[in-house]
Amino acid sequence: MAKLINLIPNNLNIKEAANVDVSDWVKKIAKNTDRNAHTEAVIELAKFLKDKSMEKILNSIMDIHMEMKSMPVELSKLRGQILDELMKIVRNKFGGDIYKQINSAF
């Protein structure tokens, strides 16, 4: 019979998930989303996750958007893919409750 502890993914820290207050991050993300600053909203999520690589890519997307004065479809799709990947990390690392709180801000 398998032990329940063996069913928990190795990268999940239950104490970390239980002690995370995401309300400030949710407010920042929601504020950006409300102003149609979608890339900035995803950048806030990358900052929350301390994912410097994704943050750098997202800043480049924002730079291109500002330079072109519009968001090319391909960049919008890339931003969406990055958001999906970051949200998977949120779900795996922090669980469904925090995932729902953050997802509701988008």
Features:
0% strand; mainly alpha
Brief account:
With 106 residues, this protein is mainly α. Helices cover 73% and strands 0% of the residues.
What can you tell me about this protein's structure?
- This protein is an all-alpha fold and 106 residues long.
- It has one domain.
- 73% of the residues lie in helices and 0% in strands.
- It contains six helices and no strands.
- It has helices at 14-18, 23-34, 38-48, 52-68, 73-94, 96-105.
- The chain starts with 13 loop residues before the first helix and ends with a helix.
- The model has no long low-confidence stretch (mean pLDDT 87).
Shape: globular
SSE-based structural type: mainly alpha
Through-space gap between termini:
41 Å
Q: What series of H and E elements makes up the topology?
A: HHHHHH
Strand content: under 5%
* Strand runs, count: 0
Radius of gyration: 16 Å
Mean pLDDT: 87
Helix content: over 70%
**Number of H/I helices:** 6
Largest sheet: none
Number of domains: 1
Outline the low-pLDDT stretches.
none
